[in-house]
From TrEMBL:
The modification N6-(pyridoxal phosphate)lysine is found at K89. Homodimer. This is Acidic amino acid decarboxylase GADL1-like. GO terms for cellular component: cytoplasm. Keywords: Catecholamine biosynthesis, Decarboxylase, Lyase, Pyridoxal phosphate. One of its GO terms (biological process) is carboxylic acid metabolic process. Transmembrane segments: none annotated. It comes from Salvelinus namaycush (Lake trout). PROSITE patterns: DDC_GAD_HDC_YDC. Gene3D superfamilies: Aspartate Aminotransferase, domain 1, Type I PLP-dependent aspartate aminotransferase-like (Major domain). The lineage of its organism: Eukaryota, Metazoa, Chordata, Craniata, Vertebrata.
Length: 277
C-alpha cells in the first residue's frame, strides 16, 4: 500500500523521456484505507535529484509525530516542501482543523492566493501587515480553526496528546493480535498504524479452497454484516474493496476511551451477525 521509491524514480524518468516536466510528488504518511506510510527519506532523495516539490499528505498519519515511540513512521518529513495535517483526525481536535505548512519563506501563499482586494486588506496600516493572514488563504471569511488546536494543546499538553496516540496504537495492536487468534478472522495486512483491516469468513466458507469463487463470496459478507449492525444499532464499522481485494472491514482506532473489551465486543458482534452467512 505504499510507494516503491525505485518505481517512482522510473516514472519520473519515463515522463522526462516523453518530454514532460514532472514538478511535484504527493507522498502520503498514513493512507486512508490501509494506514500505510510512504518512505519519505528515500522519496526526498529522489525529489532532490530531480528538483521536484515534495508534498506530504500527513492528514491522517501526522498525529504520530506527537509520539516519541511512533514518529519514526514519518522519518524524513522534515525534508518536505509542504505538509498537510489534520489535527481533527488522530488528535481529535473538533472538526474542522486542518494545517497546511510550507517551507517556502518567499510569501508563496500570498503570491498564489492574493486577490489584492483593495476594499479588504489595506497595506497602509499602522502595524506590520504581514500579520494579516486573510489575503494569504484560499478561503476568506472562515473560523480561525488553528485556535482549536492551540486550545486543545494547552489543555491536555504535549504529553496528553502523546498518550492519546500511543494508546490508540496499542489498542490497534491488541485488535490485530485478537484477529489472528480467532477462527474466521483474517488480517488483510499487518497494521502499520491504527487502521486494522480484516475479513470475516463465515463458517460456511471456511473449508472452501482459496480462489475467485471464494473471494466473490467473501466480498458479499461485509455489506450484509454492516447492514445488520446498523439495523441492530450496535456498531458502525466501515468496509470497502481495495485494488483487487474483496470487501474488508476497516476498524480505525482513535478514541482514548475505547478499551480491550470494546475490541472483543467488536469481533464477537461481527461473528454473531455473520455466522449464518
Ligand atoms: C482525511 C484525509 C484527507 C482529507 O482531509 P479532509 O479534512 O477530510 O478534507 C486527505 N488525505 C488523507 C490521507 C486523509 O486521510
Amino acid at each position: 500500500g505504499k510507494m516503491i521509491p525505485a518505481e517512482f524514480e522510473k516514472q519520473v524518468q519515463r515522463a522526462k523521456d516523453e518530454g514532460a516536466l514532472p514538478f511535484m510528488v504527493n507522498a502520503t504518511a498514513g493512507t486512508t484505507v490501509l494506514g500505510a506510510f510512504d518512505p519519505l527519506e528515500e522519496i526526498a532523495d529522489i525529489c532532490e535529484r530531480h528538483n521536484l516539490w515534495m508534498h506530504v499528505d500527513a492528514c491522517w498519519g501526522g498525529g504520530a509525530l506527537m509520539s516519541k515511540k511512533h514518529r519514526y513512521l514519518l522519518q524524513g518529513i522534515h525534508r518536505a516542501n509542504s505538509v498537510a495535517w489534520n489535527p481533527h483526525k488522530m488528535l481529535m481536535a473538533g472538526l474542522q482543523c486542518c494545517a497546511f505548512m510550507v517551507r517556502d519563506k518567499t510569501n508563496l501563499l500570498q503570491r498564489c492566493h492574493s486577490a489584492q482586494a483593495s476594499y479588504l486588506f489595506q497595506q497602509d496600516k499602522f502595524y506590520d501587515v504581514s500579520y494579516d493572514t486573510g489575503d494569504k488563504s484560499i478561503q476568506c471569511s472562515r473560523k480561525p480553526d488553528a485556535f482549536k488546536f492551540w486550545l486543545m494543546w494547552k489543555a491536555i499538553g504535549t504529553k496528553g496528546l502523546e498518550e492519546r496516540v500511543d494508546r490508540a496504537l496499542a489498542m490497534a495492536r491488541y485488535l490485530a493480535e485478537e484477529i489472528k487468534k480467532r477462527d474466521g478472522f483474517r488480517l488483510v495486512m499487518e497494521p502499520e498504524y491504527t487502521n486494522v483491516c480484516f475479513w470475516y469468513i463465515p463458517p460456511s466458507l471456511r473449508d472452501m479452497t482459496d480462489g475467485p469463487e471464494f473471494w466473490k463470496k467473501v466480498h458479499a459478507v461485509a455489506p450484509v454484516v454492516k447492514e445488520r449492525m446498523m439495523k441492530k444499532g450496535s456498531m458502525m464499522v466501515g468496509y470497502q474493496p481495495h485494488g483487487d481485494k474483496a470487501n474488508f472491514f476497516r476498524q480505525i482506532i482513535i478514541s482514548p476511551q475505547v478499551s480491550r473489551q470494546d475490541m472483543d465486543f467488536l469481533l464477537d458482534q461481527i461473528h454473531s451477525l455473520g455466522m449464518d452467512l
